[in-house]
Amino acid sequence: MLLLTHQSKHKQPSVLRFTENTEANKDFDYCKTKTHFEFEIKAGQNAESLRVLADKIEKYLHDEAVCLQIENGEPTEVFAFLEGLMLANYRFLQHFSQPKAGVFAEVVVPKTIDKAKIQELTNITKAVFKTRDLVNTPVSHLNAEQLAAAVVELGAEAGFQVQVLEETQIETLKMGGLLAVNKGSIDPPTFTVAEYKPKNAKNKQPIVLVGKGVVYDTGGLSLKPTPGSMDTMKGDMAGAATMAAVIYLAALEKLPVHLVALLPATDNRPGGNAYAPGDVITMFDGTTVEVLNTDAEGRMILADALAYSNKYNPQLVIDAATLTGAALRAIGTEASIIMGNAEDKIFQQLEASGYAVHERVVRFPFWDDYKKHMKSKIADLKNIGGPNAGMISAGKFLEHFVKAPYIHMDIAGPAWLDAPENYKGEGGTGAGVRLLYHFLKSLHD
After folding, report:
1. Terminus of the chain with fewer CB atoms < 10 Å: N or C?
2. Range of 40's domain?
């Protein structure tokens, strides 16, 4: 036996068990199911078509107990097929009082598939599922403190260090953006610092991953409408979940890359002493920001984290955030928007990784002309620009706080799906995890 898929504290409706195809078990004696069918992967199919095909087959694995035997296929093609099969196997069931009983399925793979690749695929799936679980969990069960605790658990499992800064420590650091967004909440904010530093790290300076952790976003006093807007805002912490899962996956796979993840977290509510349009906030680095819309809160908490990243003298800073509706409107759910001031070759590697795992990215311009959109008449910056190019002006706002080479990823489109889409499912997709893992591997090959 080579692997058992996603292990969650929540019951999954099926478990895929992978077994090596040998002469000893060719007659299916090992199968614990009554239904078997064989499957041959035809040569020449691209990886994404195989993932999508696997999703269709996975649907059968939920109808009855099935044993699937893959007879032939090139290792890379079999890997893509298995990846789609495993990712499609996700279900979010933790809030059902009586989850349905699981269906058992077994998959027999050719001997040509390296066991290390199967283990890697297991870890990739676990990381994506961890992200999906976090994004799908409502704020009633996942506030900022609970999100931080989940990252602590990931660190304990995979072997990386996690420090959670609580409200008094955040106040001592004078992280004005994070504290301002949190003022309308009765729950305290957190700032989680995770670090994976292997002895064989190839990078002398760390790569810093920053993720937006708004566990629920009402829009604050600039209240969102509910239908199609506020009702899915439990997923506004997808950036933080993604970056936590990336460092988790890197640690599981023992990548020789020094990583730091910075995860500011809070909910954004209109209660109590909520920050208001017209307020001026002093950020962690001393920059003053005029607040003109409290629903532009993600950039407020990210700015503090990005400024904090400077203490690590990083090789590269990458942030991920469900930041703007403008990004979703611009390119839909089919890709993430990227921009920044890192070298072109870094962007090219990220774009190549996007095509490799089919989590595509589209690079937008990042000219300094867009800075003027964020100039305030009464402070250093304002937190929203004009009606045009909102995803870029937001990126230029964030760039102000970073000294290292920088890439901004707006994942507002692909991080959440309102309807099922092949192996990505619906709700939280885990978009960005496979992309950044592939990128980090390729960056230091």
Report:
1. C
2. 3-113
Instruction: Tell me which amino acid residue 397 is.
Output: F
Residue 204 lies in a domain: yes
> What is the full per-residue pLDDT of the chain (445 aa) written as tens digits?
223 333 334 444 344 555 555 444 444 444 555 566 677 787 778 999 999 999 988 876 665 566 777 877 788 999 999 999 989 988 898 899 887 755 556 777 877 788 899 899 999 999 999 999 999 999 999 999 999 999 999 999 999 999 999 999 999 999 999 999 999 999 999 999 999 999 999 999 999 999 999 999 999 999 998 788 899 999 999 999 999 999 999 999 999 999 999 999 999 999 989 999 999 999 999 999 999 999 999 999 999 999 999 999 999 999 999 999 999 999 999 999 999 999 999 999 999 999 999 999 999 999 999 999 999 999 999 999 999 999 999 999 999 999 999 999 999 999 999 999 999 999 999 999 999 999 999 987 7
Q: How far apart, in Å, are the Cα atoms of 176 and each of 6, 153, 250, 317? A: 39, 28, 31, 21
286's tokens: 């001393």
Q: Is residue 150 part of a domain?
A: yes
- Which among 93, 113, 133 is the end of a domain? 113
Q: Which two tokens stand for residue 442?
A: 């390729």
184 & 244 share domain: yes
Active site residues: 224, 299
Q: What is the pTM of this model?
A: 0.93
Q: Which of the listed residues 84, 113, 142 is the one where a domain comes to its end?
A: 113
